[in-house]
What we know:
alpha/beta; 13 helices; 13% strand; globular
Amino acid sequence: MVHNIFKGLGIALITPFCEDGSVDYTALVKLVEYQLDNGADFFCILATTGETPCLTADEKAKIKDTVIATVKGRVPILMGCGGNNTAAVVEELRSADFHGIDGLLSVCPYYNKPSQEGLYQHFKAIAEASPLPVVLYNVPGRTGVNLKAETTVRLAQDCEKIVAIKEASGNLEQVDEIIKNKPADFDVLSGDDALTFPMISCGAVGVISVIGNALPREFSKMIRLEFKGEYEGARKIHHKFTDLFSLLFIDGNPAGVKAMLHEMGMIENVLRLPLVPTRISTLQKMSEILRSLKI
């Protein structure tokens, strides 16, 4: 039986760039070590927050190898592998080198807007072709289609390789329906930092976090308190970050967290087009909150 090993604080890892726009592998290594030292339970690489659509094949391969070499097996690594051409994703699953990777995150097909049956068949084909456990990724705000709770549960029941879902629909009712009806060996992960506290209280097993790039110690503490049933302490941390959550995403992801990491002296504040750095006004507000939190 295939089990989900992706629990607790997962980092939706950014891709740091140098001032000239090239990948900053030195900063990447330092960032991964910083996150490991401060509570990261697993990494999610080459996905949305990593600006993956704007990376070359060679850059993606080197980022993967760099993270694997830095982590050295200390925590699991989940890697993005999805798309809106089912046959192409299946071919990649059959031919790519996944050595050192522990699982694959596969996003709902975007742009095509498939039906629920189309989504089911897409992920069923991926599960059958995948050499590794699969985590579904539902993010309707980016894909234009919502993987409904009943379809998620159907996939969880029918496909042994599908072990979890990263739920970023923003719909707590849908999340609760999945948790209520899912098989015992299938897990739900938060795909939204701001909803991690209520999702874990409903039964989610962790988060794939953006803010964890910059503040892993604080965010992992909240999660660990919740796991122990210490909800009052966890709620206080959640409320500390409420204003920061909205600022993080107001100018798009990962612009907000890259600005924060730049303020912390960890990376250059560089993104690849069509993404651009966060506005100065947003950055100033974030800096004020970080100062007030003594971070």
